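Why do we care about 3D structure at all? Because function follows from shape, and shape follows, mostly, from sequence. That is the central idea of this module. The next example makes it concrete: a single protein chain, its amino acid sequence, and then its structure expressed as tokens.
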Amino acid sequence: MSKQSIFGRISTLVRANVNALIDQAEDPEKMLDQLIRDFTNNIADAEAAIAETIGNLRLLERDHAEDVQTASEWGSKALAASRKADDLRSSGDSAGADKFDSLAKVALQRQISAESEAKDAEPQIASQNEVVEKLKAGLAGMKQKLVDLRTKRDQLVARAKTAEAQTKVQDAVKSINVMDPTSDLGRFEEKVRRQEALATGQAELAASSLDAQFESLDDMGELTEVEARLAALKGGAQGQLDA
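And the structure:
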């Protein structure tokens, strides 16, 4: 994966506006679940690519350090050869001195070559370090977005469940509203009221019939008393006639 593609993916994902995506989604929960999967997969890909980039950077730094070390070693060899040449020349050995001066020149050439390689690598190392820092920052942003997505998803699910529960409660309340005459419970209450009224009417009717019977009984008592007195009267009159 190239640096450009890594940057592009990280930049796009980090800039993603989660709230806007939720507003546009037909099913926000499914959309968030898919986003979480996408972020998780892309984070894994980005981590692998960044690890590879860091590995390449460390190789460049190691090569640079080796070039610096090599340049230093050739510089030491050039110095040693030059001193040896000076010592030989002082002792009158011109041929030996020229030989070691030649070796010093070879060492200096090797030193210059190593220094050049080290110098050429420094801008690339600096650039790669900058890239790695940006990639790390982008990766941290992706991970934070993933945390935000998971939090948003959990909040959304909780809110949806709460709303669903509230709807069910409201529907249940409506279905058992005893004040609603069209409800089954309202009709049953009306039936009970009619039965109670019928029982009350029957009781009143029974009471009135019983009162009438007692009134007839009172009338019969009065008639019996009249008959007794009449008989007494008749008996008294007959006694007077016999006397």
